[in-house]
Amino acid sequence: MIVRTLDEIIGTDNDVRAETWASRRLLLKKDGMGFSYHDTTIYAGTETHIWYKNHLEAVYCVGGEGEIETVADGKVYPIKDGTMYALNEHDEHYLRAKTDMRLICVFNPPLTGQETHDEEGAYPLVEAE
């Protein structure tokens, strides 16, 4: 059994930060679950371009407010506490936060832990730890 708390993650190598977000990686590839599990904050007033070409992601908002816009069709979907969205087609999108948004994210294949978005908004597919 794996039991972890957010307090154990904050300030460690599994607390990965960028200009527009912070991701606390609770489960990673090395944990052998077949997915990774993240507690992510998108900072208020920011826009992040994301295109996970190598991963599928499901996201559940547990706090805050913002929106997601799909690049392919320009559709904008509001996000608030209780909203789930799934990027089941490697959807290129913009994530915008009106307030700090706290999101619980699941990635398949799992992340190794230190990935950050590349110039296209993707995480690289890392095979080895």
Largest sheet: 6 strands, antiparallel
What name does the CATH topology carry?
A: Jelly Rolls
Shape category: globular
The helix content, as a percent range, equals under 10%
Number of strands: 10
Function: Catalyzes the circularization of gamma-N-acetyl-alpha,gamma-diaminobutyric acid (ADABA) to ectoine (1,4,5,6-tetrahydro-2-methyl-4-pyrimidine carboxylic acid), which is an excellent osmoprotectant.
Pathway: Amine and polyamine biosynthesis; ectoine biosynthesis; L-ectoine from L-aspartate 4-semialdehyde: step 3/3
InterPro entries: Ectoine_synth, RmlC-like_jellyroll, RmlC_Cupin_sf
Family: Belongs to the ectoine synthase family.
Topology:
Blueprint: H1 6-9, E1 15-17, E2 21-27, E3 36-42, E4 47-50, E5 56-63, E6 65-70, E7 76-80, E8 84-87, E9 93-97, E10 101-108
Antiparallel strand pairs: 1-2, 2-3, 3-10, 4-9, 5-8, 5-10, 6-7, 6-9
Pfam family, one: Ectoine_synth
Pathway: Amine and polyamine biosynthesis; ectoine biosynthesis; L-ectoine from L-aspartate 4-semialdehyde: step 3/3
Protein name: L-ectoine synthase
Structural description of this entry:
Its EC number is 4.2.1.108. This protein has 129 residues and is mainly β. It has 1 helix and 10 strands. The longest helix has 4 residues. The chain starts with 5 loop residues before the first helix and ends in a 21-residue tail after the last strand.
Descriptors for this entry?
Jelly Rolls; 10 strands; 1 helix; 4-stranded antiparallel beta sheet; 3% helix; mainly beta; 129 residues
